[in-house]
Design goal:
Helix content of chain A: 40-55%
Order of helices and strands of chain A: HEHEHEEEHHEHHHHEHEEEHHHEEEHH
Distance between the termini of chain A: 51 Å
CATH architecture of chain B: Orthogonal Bundle
Structural class of chain B: mainly alpha
CATH architecture of the largest domain in chain A: 3-Layer(aba) Sandwich
Number of strands of chain B: 0
Number of strands of chain A: 13
Number of helices of chain A: 15
Strand content of chain A: 5-15%
CATH topology of chain B: MetI-like fold
Oligomer: heterodimer
Distance between the termini of chain B: 48 Å
Largest sheet of chain A: 4 strands, mixed
CATH class of chain B: Mainly Alpha
Helix content of chain B: over 70%
Order of helices and strands of chain B: HHHHHHHHHHHHH
Shape of chain B: flat
CATH superfamily of the largest domain in chain A: Periplasmic binding protein-like II
Radius of gyration of chain B: 25 Å
Number of domains of chain B: 1
Number of helices of chain B: 13
Largest sheet of chain B: none
């Protein structure tokens, strides 16, 4: 290679490094935005699922567009696996949307989002205060998703001689023995994200009863996740050993697990309230019902219910259509019809919105209403959060109970991970 | 230098530049810039959102060296790449020899062998999970006959073996095609001469066919190794990295850390290490093969 060619390549390479460094280090994707006009386009990045199709979202915002001539709400689907990985890509490309649905503000996201604290209408939206960061509201939602629910096959319970749903974890374990003797797989679980999620959902009422400020205590190192969870992990290990859950469950995905439960092979399925819609659409041939996750012996039942915000919305700080974006989000979380539609579409719940609830939906609403308290779940939200990535790490740790690790091993692993994040 | 000669030289240079320029520009934009950007990001704490990520020096690399999960993913990746490359090469060559003759039946076999490669890895994963999952076709068949369920996807060792098996199933069509192309280039005179000299089929294969295929073997080994070291999409659709993280590959973990855990700086450090390991291994294989080829020629 001649000297001149080498020099030219050096210049090109240097320029490339500078361009690269400047493009990511120099900023450019954190603007302050502007209030915008009364007409124009508002881009909204949303979650797309079999229930929440692009067509559904377009129908949902149509009344808003009709009421605001000259306004076009552009629904954008994630280009990556989901909203969570698509938003950073759009931000880095300088192509951020105006409104984002699905994510909730944490310390990473909050600096990019518009503070909504001074918007009076946010006060009446579910969990807005609980999800606030340092007292500042960034996220507003449509409803609540109940998390600590056990869906069950009433016919299987009757056949096994169980007359009432268990209220404590000891009663639940005893019921599992009877269900197994009656020929059912007592508790349905699966691999993927399901294993860890179910155990978190099951643990919420007991942990919140024993430690009302558990998240703060974990953050302050007064408690560790592993030590708090170890009794439940030991119980779960005994369930695996006794065949109360399928030892090969990790080879199932969530859809197959749901099919097993809804076809009557298994007697119980722990899942969030979004399962109501799936369960009802499957039209099971048995009497399907739901009870709140049991608590530890000696604790009041029902215990606090784990809840998450349903259909959360945020407005990006960089929006050039701030007024219209705020107006759109206000419409989505306060308009009676828009709220009702979103609640029905994805199995979500909100006090005062009981119209059109199915019998199973009414049972879930009653559980939410009767719960003495609503508490954060998993990684949590607002001030009650665990380090990002906790849910995934917890899931892997719980799955290792199936691969021969002990409850003590799992507790140590999760505490070691938590330690590495502090 | 006369004016005419200078003009000719300038014209030649412009012609060269016009031909090299577009390719060089593409190379820089599509390869050099992203690589440089990854290296830069690996030295920051970028979370994917902040406009001004802070430089943290080599902290991400030290964290990576201490991360049990990343080390485990590295070993899983090396096992997949090592075992997979050997299987792909051996099976690829075996099937290429089987369908080497010119007949209508062989043409059909070639299409059948190549077909899995046409499918998207995501589709392949979903397909095989429906076949091998706990309530899949195979286990359904076994349970109706009172047999135990086989833990293809629920036991860590089985799941890794299943993943490698499916990767090989999906990928060996390319190896077959490359080996077939190599086999077509072997002189018929050489094979005929070996036959007249009384060489057995085994001796002919070892002393004539295999040495002649040496360059194709190198290409296949390097291509298979590089592609297997980047295994990602099949992990997503077949095992989801489970059970208990036992089939998490380096590429899967990079995406997981980068986007699920919002640790793009750390994810970039993993990318840089994966790139260096891949490049190093590919060069080593190519170098070793080159020496072996020279040994054969010498």
């Amino acid at each position: 290679m001649s000297r001149s060619v080498r020099r030219s390549l050096g210049v090109v390479l240097g320029a490339a490094i500078l361009v690269g460094a400047a493009s990511c280090g120099g900023g450019g994707f954190e603007g302050e935005g502007s209030s915008g006009g009364s007409t124009g386009t508002v881009r909204m990045l949303v979650n797309i699922t079999p229930n929440l199709t692009k067509g559904y979202w377009e129908e949902l915002v149509k009344p808003f567009e009709d009421a605001n001539p000259g306004v076009d709400v552009k629904i954008e689907a994630p280009t990556g696996q989901g909203v969570k990985d698509t938003l950073p890509q759009l931000l880095a490309a300088g192509n951020a949307p105006d409104v984002v649905e699905t994510l909730m503000a944490d310390k990473t996201l909050a600096p990019q989002m518009l503070e909504l604290t001074d918007q009076a209408w946010t006060k009446d939206t579910p969990l807005a205060e609980q999800a606030a960061l340092d007292g500042k509201v960034y996220t507003v939602g449509v409803g609540q998703q109940a998390q600590s629910l056990v869906f069950y096959n009433k016919d299987a319970f009757a056949k096994a001689g169980i007359t009432a749903p268990p209220k404590t974890l000891d009663e639940m374990t005893a019921a599992m023995a009877k269900l197994k003797a009656a020929g059912y797989l007592p508790l349905q679980t699966a691999g993927d994200y399901v294993t860890g999620l179910q155990l978190l959902q099951l643990s919420d009422p007991s942990i919140a009863s024993a430690h009302p400020d558990w998240y703060q205590k974990v953050a302050g190192k007064e408690l560790t996740v592993g030590k708090t969870m170890q009794p439940l992990l030991e119980r779960y290990q005994s369930w695996i050993k006794n065949g109360y859950v399928d030892k090969n469950a990790l080879g199932l995905d969530d859809v197959n697990a749901q099919t097993n439960f809804l076809s009557g092979k298994s007697a119980m399925y722990i899942m969030g309230s979004w399962f109501v819609r799936t369960a009802e659409e499957a039209k099971p041939k048995f009497d399907l019902s739901v009870f709140p996750a049991p608590t530890e012996t000696g604790q009041p039942s029902p215990g606090p219910q784990g809840v998450t915000m349903a259909a959360p919305y945020m407005v990006l700080k960089s929006t050039q259509q701030r007024d219209l974006s705020l107006k759109l989000v206000q419409y989505l979380v306060t308009d009676q019809k828009a709220v009702q539609s979103q609640l029905a579409q994805d199995g979500n719940f909100r006090k005062g919105f009981t119209e059109g609830l199915t019998p199973l939906g009414q049972e879930v609403q009653a559980i939410l209403d009767q719960a003495p308290k609503h508490v954060a779940q998993g990684e949590g939200y607002g001030a009650t959060t665990l380090p990002q990535g906790f849910n995934g790490e917890w899931n892997k740790a719980v799955q290792s109970l199936y691969t021969g690790k002990s409850a003590q091993d799992v507790a140590t692993r999760i505490d070691s991970w938590m330690g590495s994040k502090s | 230098m006369s004016a005419t000669a200078a003009a000719t030289r300038l014209r030649d240079r412009l012609t060269t530049a016009s031909m090299v320029g577009p390719a060089l520009l593409l190379f820089v934009v599509m390869l050099v810039v992203p690589v440089c950007l990854s290296v830069y990001l690996s030295l920051t704490d970028w979370n994917g959102y902040s406009a001004n990520p802070a430089l943290v020096g080599l902290r991400n690399y030290f964290d990576l060296a201490r991360s049990e999960e990343a080390i485990r993913a590295g070993w899983v990746t090396l096992v997949i790449a090592g075992v997979g490359t050997i299987l792909l090469s051996v099976l690829g060559l075996g099937f290429a020899l089987l369908v080497n003759g010119a007949s209508r039946l062989n043409s059909i076999f070639r299409v059948v062998l190549f077909y899995p490669h046409v499918l998207s890895a995501l589709v392949v994963g979903f397909l095989w999970s429906a076949v091998l999952g706990t309530s899949g076709v195979v286990n359904g068949f076994l349970t109706t006959r009172g047999a135990e369920v086989l833990p293809f996807l629920s036991n860590p060792t089985w799941a890794l073996a299943t993943l490698i098996g499916v990767l090989v199933w999906a990928g060996f069509g390319v190896n077959v095609v490359l080996y077939l192309a190599g086999l077509q280039t072997i002189s018929k005179d050489l094979l005929e001469a070996a036959r007249i000299d009384g060489a057995s089929p085994r001796q002919t294969f070892l002393n004539v066919t295999l040495p002649a295929l040496a360059p194709v073997v190198t290409v296949n080994l390097v291509l298979s190794l590089v592609s297997l070291l980047k295994t990602y999409d099949l992990v997503v659709s077949l095992t989801g990295g489970g059970p208990a993280g036992s089939t998490q590959t380096a590429a899967y973990l990079i995406l997981w850390d980068s986007f699920h855990n919002n640790a793009l700086g750390f994810g970039s450090a993993q990318s840089v290490v994966l790139m260096l390991v891949t490049g190093g291994l590919a060069l080593t294989v190519a170098r070793l093969r080159s020496r072996a080829d020279q040994g054969v020629k010498g």
